[in-house]
Write a structure and sequence with these properties.
heterodimer, A: about 190 residues, mainly alpha, Rna Polymerase Sigma Factor, Chain: A, Arc Repressor Mutant, subunit A, B: about 700 residues, mainly beta, nine-stranded mixed β-sheet, five-stranded antiparallel β-sheet, 48 strands, globular, disordered C terminus
Chain lengths: ~190, ~700
């Protein structure tokens, strides 16, 4: 999807569900993946991803199309949600997908969420090397966690990271340098 | 490990790429079935969240009585009263509210502040002030704040965080006189003689910046409560406005009205718990409204909102602002009038399981607060089935409150109710247009016009002369629908909406923008006597959702509206252009019509501020372009079209160009999402993280 097409979609998505659905399909896997690689926790990743998209939908009308891509905007919301998750003993969510499923939303879904979760957990546990690094990353301050994950796991360019975190590119570069050093010290 | 090797290790680390298709699908269905897409208005969190919490609600409200006297009121057997103490409030919220954590996610687009009318006043047609136009408002004498105002000599504009005063007349000498720059966004303005009233909002943005200085130990404030300021300026010298008054309140601006000398502003603030304390609303210099001043009804809800109405005398700075605060459940809609403020909010309860999810039964409760200058008294409350579309679906006339609603049952149904001042239903016309939903409504004296739509547009004409027996007089079925209805005169009504092409029995594709003139003089047989279609599918006009963008003057046969015109390139569809094809925007500006019963709608001309639509600054963003015409007005014989970037003046008769004024438009945005002029994202030099700037 090129930027122009995306811009059209975002503008339509404020009113049209089909346009929003296309954006959702495009970005759900990336946001869920990002949040999972930040948290290494499937339950948390579900909750945080839900909150991210709910907030995005609610704030779509405020989304000012300038040069920040919709993608960076979503990552920004997700990043903020992850921070909140790490900072609270109990992550306060405004909607629980479990509740939704209990109340009938699952009727539509051919999926078996419980089995999926078990299988996903098994898959996650196969990534021992990643989990070991992730455990060390989460002990770093949030700003370091963010730049490292965005750069090395999400493969974001410095410019994109700067957009997502709302900092200058130079700041990101130095943050990244320092973050890697800090992480290396724990190696 | 060496630095370079460590980088390589990180780059090559195999990371989990796991999906949960069930979660993905469930969340998608939830988002798509949210109120966001079922309503024309913007996202309403409370509606979105209601289905999942409706089960906890205890609301089964049946009846209500109230009279205009002080004393306890009753809503469905639940007493409405004031809290005896803060502890009582805290206890009440603690036991009753399901969620105490609040997300700022709703939009003021969901609040309808409809102005009622003084008794016997003509509640539909604001008289045209000879010489210049005024904001297109619902009710004569009840002004509505807007981003553009004129007094016939000057034009006052809100743009981003600025308010600009322009000497507008004579057009040849038009120029910017002054600018007021504020910290927050200017939501709207009023002009009242030499007093300019500015509503400024301090935006509830995420606390991104506070937390960037890091330290995971710091308590994270998830949201900053927004604050609004009502600023009154003495503009007797338009070149140097003087701030004479600044009234602040915690919460989010919902809407405002100005009646006589008084500006009324309605502010909402969620009730939340922080450090085991329940917040209280604040007015003025951090003056907390005591719990004992707050009204409430004994109903458990998803969560609670404080709705505070503040009355400010714009002419007398010495008079203290007055306020009235009510603690209500989720999603209160508000409705103010010359004599009364009406507060409407959906009542949740009685879940219905639909194939797409849970739907709660729809009822709307209405509360009336009598106003007289700075005096405000909560006097009556009542309830009706269905949801209210917008302010034009409500009206007060001759001692009765009338309202049109839609219920979305197995099949949608539409209803018109008449209530007395105690807010008891005196008459109703239920079950109108089965399977369709209301797209627009307008009350005019004893009549009500309602447009419903599914695949064609019935325009219903309803007689309300007998408040105990509303009657359907006639209906007209044509293609297309109207999103805004404006009375032309007693027997004619203008409809602004979209043309449609029916695809199936229950579905139609909307096409371009359509303006219609209906003749309802034979009420049993309404007719469309003229129509004008603009552009292909994709064409849009702000009038479809914001009546203030509409300029109409019957005496001058004038109708002006901003339009974004889209065209389909037919060569892309060699097989013929399908009904669903979407056009590309090709033009933005004001369409100027000559309108009369005899000649119908005649296009007089078009005025644009976009000289080159391929210029990124001017045309590329279409809606967001600062060159997009948003409002129009006239002074004497000059038509003024207004975008963020300029005011253009053309002769009202010939549309010949006269002059233009460049505006100091603001690219300011309260959100950190725009790199154009973001809030400072970096800590100031010397701050803790300043040390992170490494030499290259």
């Amino acid at each position: 999807m090129d930027l122009r097409e995306e811009k059209e979609l975002v503008s339509q998505a404020q009113k049209a569900p089909d346009a929003f659905a296309r954006l959702y399909d495009q970005y759900y896997p990336r946001i869920f993946g990002y949040v999972l690689r930040r948290s290494a926790n499937l339950e948390a990743a579900q909750d945080i991803t839900s909150e991210t998209f709910l907030k995005a939908l609610g704030k779509l009308w405020q989304f000012q199309w300038r040069n920040v891509s919709f993608s960076s905007w979503l990552y920004k919301i997700a990043t903020n949600e992850v921070r909140q998750y790490f900072r609270k003993a109990e992550y306060k969510k405004s909607v629980s997908l479990e509740e939704l499923q209990e109340q009938g939303f699952e009727l539509l879904s051919p999926h078996d969420p419980e089995n999926e979760l078990i299988e996903a957990q098994e898959k996650l546990e196969q990534h021992q090397e990643f989990l070991e690094v992730q455990q060390r990353i989460v002990r770093l301050p949030a700003r370091y966690q963010e730049v490292i994950t965005l750069r090395f796991f999400e493969k974001k360019q410095i410019k994109e990271i700067a957009e997502i975190l709302g900092k200058r590119e130079g700041t990101i570069k130095s943050l990244l340098h320092r973050a890697v050093e800090k992480l290396r010290e724990t190696d | 490990m060496k630095y370079e090797d460590f980088i390589k290790k990180l780059e090559n680390l195999k990371t989990p790429d796991i999906e949960l298709p069930g979660h993905r699908q469930t969340l998608k269905m939830f988002l798509l079935n949210s109120g966001r897409f079922r309503e024309r208005t913007a996202m309403n969190w409370m509606k979105v969240l209601a289905p999942i919490t409706a089960a906890v609600l205890l609301i089964t409200v049946v009846g209500f009585f109230a009279v205009d006297r002080p004393g306890p009121l009753y809503l469905g057997g639940n007493e409405i009263s004031q809290f005896a103490s803060y502890d009582e409030l805290q206890d009440f919220v603690g036991t009753k509210a399901e969620y105490k954590q609040f997300s700022w996610g709703f939009s003021r687009g969901d609040f309808f502040l409809a102005a009622g009318s003084a008794e016997n006043a003509d509640s539909t047609l604001a008289p045209a002030v000879s010489g210049h136009s005024t904001t297109n408002i619902q009710v004569a004498g009840v002004d509505e704040a807007d981003v553009v105002k004129t007094d016939g000599a000057y034009i006052y504009l809100a743009s981003g965080n600025k308010t600009v005063i322009v000497q507008a007349y004579p057009a040849e000498q038009a120029r910017v006189l002054s600018e007021i720059e504020l910290e927050g966004r200017v939501i709207g303005i009023f002009i009242n003689g030499d007093r300019l009233v500015v509503f400024e909002e301090e935006t509830p943005y995420y606390a991104y910046y506070d937390i960037q200085r890091d330290s995971s130990e710091k308590f994270y404030m998830p949201y900053i409560s927004p604050k609004i300021y009502v600023k009154v300026y003495d503009v007797s010298d338009r070149a140097t406005p003087q701030l004479t008054r600044n009234v602040s309140a915690s919460g989010q601006y919902v809407s405002s009205r100005m009646i006589g000398d008084y500006a009324y502003v309605v502010v909402n603030e969620p009730v939340y718990e922080q450090d085991d304390e329940i917040n209280l609303p604040k007015v003025g210099d951090n003056e907390t409204i005591p719990a004992t001043d707050i009204y409430y009804s004994d109903v458990a809800d998803y969560y609670y909102m404080y709705t505070t109405i503040i009355a400010i005398n714009t002419q007398n700075d010495a008079q203290e602002p007055t306020y009235e605060t009510i603690l209500l459940g989720a999603s209160s809609n508000l409705y103010v009038s010359a004599d009364n403020i009406y507060l409407t909010f959906p009542v949740w309860g009685g879940d219905v399981v639909e194939p797409w999810g849970i739907r709660s039964s729809e009822r709307t409760s209405i509360h009336r607060i009598r106003i007289e200058g700075g005096e405000m008294n909560y006097v009556a409350s009542g309830e009706i089935p269905g949801m209210v579309l917008n302010q034009f679906a409500m009206d007060e006339y001759d001692g009765y409150f009338r309202v049109a609603t839609t219920t979305h049952g197995e099949e949608p149904l539409n209803n018109v109710y008449v209530l007395n001042m105690a807010l008891n239903v005196t008459g109703s016309l239920p079950d109108l247009a089965k399977g369709e939903t209301i797209y627009s409504a307008r009350f005019a004296g004893d009549r009500c016009y309602v447009v419903t739509f599914r695949n064609i547009d019935p325009l219903f004409v309803i007689d309300l002369s007998n408040p105990t027996n509303p009657r359907l007089l006639g209906e007209l079925k044509i293609t297309g629908y109207s999103s805004y209805l404006h009375p032309y005169d007693e027997n004619h009504i203008i409809g602004i909406g979209k043309e449609t092409v029916a695809e199936q029995e229950d579905f139609a594709w909307y096409q371009g923008v359509k303006i219609s003139l209906f003749d309802v003089s034979d009420v049993s047989n309404p007719r469309e006597i003229s129509k004008y279609e603009i552009g292909d599918r994709g064409t849009d006009s702000p009038v479809l959702w914001d009546h203030k963008a509409f300029l109409f003057d019957k005496e001058r046969n004038l109708l002006v509206m901003p339009v974004l015109e889209a065209k389909i390139n037919a060569t892309q569809y060699p097989e013929g252009v399908p009904s669903w094809a979407y056009g590309q925007p090709v033009w933005q500006g004001a369409y100027v019509f000559d309108i009369s019963v005899d000649n119908g709608l005649q296009l007089k001309g078009k005025i644009t501020h976009v000289e080159n639509i391929t210029d990124p600054e001017q045309g590329y963003y279409y809606y967001y372009s600062p060159f997009a015409v948003e409002r129009s007005l006239y002074i004497d014989n000059v038509l003024y079209t207004i975008s963020q970037a300029k005011i253009k003046m053309n002769d009202l008769g010939t549309l010949e160009y006269i002059n233009e004024v460049e505006l100091p438009y603001s690219t300011w945005t309260p959100y950190g999402y725009s790199p154009v002029e973001p809030r400072p994202a970096e800590p100031p030099a010397g701050a803790e993280s300043g040390a992170e700037t490494f030499p290259k």
